[in-house]
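Re: that backbone. Tokens:
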């Protein structure tokens, strides 16, 4: 049975809302996601341990140091700048982004205003930063590293109950409700522990553009993802297509399998079998599973209609690789079914 790693500090992040197409809407990435999963796993007899603190070395190996420093400091700078008091804005929200459309090939100066710097590192308006965001995101990183440590010490399966999720966080940016890339940290930690080749299998309903970006040019980490087709209008819109296969030394170490909405278990499990086979062909010695369960039938963020049995079989397919597994929590937003979906996947992974 998989060991569960968690931290109470992951509850500190309260997004408050998402700003989507200019409209402030209730957020679905809420602290209760952690408690319903933890309670379900505890009731099912899974051993639960606290995340151990780690330094920033691995974190700064997968993210640019200036970005990490920004995320650590931006809320305090926002509060010190009077944005909550003077403008009634109780979360960090970017309003201008230095895209290619703005830069037009010109070198840009570093912005002075805090509200401008927010757009330097955040690529959407729905991923808000509040007073507990850094604390929670950093604790999630510790959970991912602790799970990797357990596997390196001999456990076959360890599960990091990370929150907020991470697979949309790029080397120098956050978005998609993700701030720091927990799966990338777990993979790098396994590499540092001596696993020569590591695979990441992303089963979140949405493509993990951040994880793909971090390992895009690397030959030692394979990234494979099954996800709802971005060509059908789904986040992250710009990435997640089959022609994205890596570049340079990383050429051929990325595999994307977009899935048609409403397709259900058969298509999903066929895609997972392809990812399993590609991971085996890559020669991975350990695998990180980006365990989103938002492809489930009842989830409000996905149209993929995967069943509880489909998630159990997902775990079984990955377990058939016969290599150590670190599972890292990503999405999953239907609170009544969330714990059961995670538990069933972990049972499958444990064999």
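Recovered sequence:
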């Amino acid at each position: 049975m998989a060991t569960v790693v968690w931290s109470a500090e992951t509850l500190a992040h309260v997004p408050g809302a998402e700003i989507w197409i200019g409209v402030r809407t209730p957020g679905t990435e809420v602290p209760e996601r952690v408690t319903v999963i933890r309670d379900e796993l505890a009731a099912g007899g899974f051993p639960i341990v606290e995340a151990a603190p780690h330094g920033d070395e691995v974190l700064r190996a997968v993210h640019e140091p200036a970005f990490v420093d920004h995320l650590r400091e931006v809320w305090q700078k926002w509060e010190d700048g009077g944005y909550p008091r003077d403008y009634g804005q109780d979360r960090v929200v970017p309003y201008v982004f230095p895209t290619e459309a703005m830069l037009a090939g010109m070198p840009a100066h570093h912005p002075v205003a805090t509200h401008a710097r927010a757009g330097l590192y955040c690529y959407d308006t729905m991923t808000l930063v509040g007073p507990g965001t850094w604390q929670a995101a950093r604790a999630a990183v510790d959970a991912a590293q602790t799970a990797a440590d357990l596997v390196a010490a001999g456990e076959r399966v360890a599960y990091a109950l990370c929150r907020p999720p991470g697979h949309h966080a790029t080397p120098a940016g956050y978005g998609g409700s993700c701030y720091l890339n927990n799966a990338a940290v777990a993979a790098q930690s396994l590499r540092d522990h001596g696993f020569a080749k590591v695979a990441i299998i992303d089963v979140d309903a949405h493509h993990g553009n951040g994880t793909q970006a971090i390992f895009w040019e690397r030959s030692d980490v394979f990234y494979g993802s099954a996800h709802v087709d971005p060509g059908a209008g789904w986040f992250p819109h710009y990435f997640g297509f089959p022609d994205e296969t890596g570049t340079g030394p990383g050429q051929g170490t990325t595999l994307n399998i977009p899935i048609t909405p409403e397709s259900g278990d058969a298509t999903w499990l066929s895609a997972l079998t392809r990812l399993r086979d590609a991971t085996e062909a890559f020669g991975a010695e350990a695998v990180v599973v980006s365990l989103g369960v938002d492809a489930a039938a009842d989830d409000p963020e996905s149209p993929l209609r995967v069943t509880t049995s489909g998630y159990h079989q997902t775990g079984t397919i990955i377990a058939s690789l016969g290599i150590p597994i670190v599972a890292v929590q990503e999405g999953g937003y239907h609170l009544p079914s969330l714990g059961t979906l995670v538990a069933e996947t972990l049972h499958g992974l444990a064999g």
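The chain has a mean pLDDT of 97. The chain has twelve helices and ten strands.
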